[in-house]
Design a protein that fits this description.
heterodimer; A: alpha/beta; five-stranded mixed beta sheet; B: 4 helices; globular
């Protein structure tokens, strides 16, 4: 199941120990990871930012974890993920889950085609131990080893 | 029973909520259909849902819909989901 995650995180999609000063910067990095791994075109990054501006910090889905995403759109080339860890946690304005240290970028081509991926992501992020390992990782190879 | 899981875009949080609610419901032995939707679809198709699962920030956008609105703080916390679903089913 976990190889689903490794495939979803294409080359260029993992950015570790980044220093950001705002949720917007972290979304730009998550968006850049999706663009570099050829899952989206750059307009998707703007769509993720607009979605956050419209609906707010509900995307902070668990303590310290944000799921940056827009809707399925023409900007999505292929379903995929990006992963950004922040060297200093950032306040996103979440009622119960601030501050954020891990930003997962998500792009999906439709509403139903990525269910296996979401199941694998859920299993990973449900493990506090694995989330801590991800947050402390400094090398992409380390992150990939936690995915399998 | 019909349960709707709702988020802004219909591809992220609502899908995670659906999967984790299904796990909890199965463990509780409750037969329910869980449907994931974005807010627009939820408002269009949500009539008839007994329970609406969502995140706290979106509750205000769903007020007035039929069904009990149950906000979940931590979508990976099966204990929280179980406790809140149990309370909503009483």
């Amino acid at each position: 199941m976990s190889s689903v995650l490794s495939l979803a995180l294409g080359e260029g999609s993992i950015k570790l120990q980044q220093s950001c000063t705002s949720w917007r910067e972290s979304f730009e990095l998550a968006g850049a990871g999706l663009v570099e791994s050829k899952r989206t075109v750059s307009t998707y990054t703007q769509e993720m930012i607009e979605a956050f501006e419209e609906l707010g910090p509900y995307m902070v889905i668990a303590p310290g974890i944000a799921l940056a995403h827009g809707r399925p759109s023409a900007s999505v080339l292929e379903t995929g993920l990006s992963l950004v860890t922040l060297s200093t946690p950032i306040e996103f304005g979440s009622q119960s889950n601030d501050p954020v240290s891990l930003v997962i970028g998500l792009a999906a081509t439709d509403h139903d085609g990525h269910i296996d991926l979401m199941a694998a992501l859920s299993e990973l992020l449900m493990s506090e131990e694995k989330v801590t390992l991800l947050l402390n990782a400094t090398k992409e190879a380390e992150v990939r080893s936690y995915l399998s | 029973m019909k349960i709707l899981s709702v988020c802004g875009m219909g591809i992220g949080t609502s899908v995670l909520l659906k999967m984790n609610a299904e796990k909890v419901l199965e463990a509780m032995g409750i037969d329910a259909e869980v449907v994931a939707a974005d807010i627009t679809k939820a408002k269009r198709e949500g009539i008839g849902a007994d329970i609406i699962l969502t995140t706290p920030e979106l509750v205000v956008l769903l007020e007035g819909m039929p069904g009990k609105i149950v906000p979940i703080d931590h979508v990976f916390d099966l204990t929280e989901i179980r406790q809140k679903l149990t309370a909503a089913l009483l």
